[in-house]
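To: structure desk
From: M.T.
Subject: fold request, one chain
Message: Could you run this one when you get a chance? Sequence is below, nothing fancy, just the single chain.
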Amino acid sequence: QDMDIESVMAEIRVEEIQMNENEFDEEIQEIPIDEKNEVQRGTEIANPPTTPTTSVDDKVEEDLTSWPFLRQLRTTHFFGVAFWSFFTLFGASFVLGSINDQFDSIQTNNTDELVRIFNILILTSNLLAPVFGKLVDYGGLATAFVCIGALGIVTYLILILPAFYNVPTWLLYVSGVTFGTFRAWNSAGITCYAQGVFGNTNFGKVLGIGVGGIYILSSAVQYPAMYLSVQKYNSFVPINISLVVVYVILFAFPTWIKYNERSKDRK
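Reply: Done. Structure tokens follow.
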């Protein structure tokens, strides 16, 4: 009899638990949807997710290497290197095309010898290519472009001086070294920038079509510049001075590169 009583009592307790659960479910169903959402949000606040969330400010800038070629050409990154390339490549073409006339305007008796040695020094300056590699590795592209611009400015300043002062011949030879180094480093710097920023997939298109198109335009400007120097100004000083001013402005490009690098580091 005692066992029967205990069995009956256990069944009663089970029925009470089931009735309580049913009543709780009915109360939950009667709660309005808005209140349910408030309860859910309160639960999420009290028990935040363990996985970290990323805000918009924490997102890293999208990698340009995955972009299509035409979209890459519409970026500020390409406009920057195009601006740099146009004037630096024009300056290099202008010197190569006018150096004989520039030395001849100095009215020396050894113009041919000056030009010959100048061209030799341009080639021998390629031996400094490893220095540029170390410069990029340790200083970054921004530092490299600053050095390239400085070499260009030094070259044009040396070519300007003979119009106002009697300069020693060795200083003109120095311009051959600075110009050759400037020209070689500039090509290497543009190449490193194109591959590093835009990636390997479209590297040939960016450098060949993008920068190559800029080079064609800059080379075309050489001819009216030569006409102005020979026919109108009867001097190469105005163009050389203009190039010095433009190259100073071009320092905005490596400054912008450095700014972007620091922005990514902060993120």
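Reply (cont.): Residues 98 and 226 are 7 Å apart (CA to CA). Let me know if you need anything else for the meeting.
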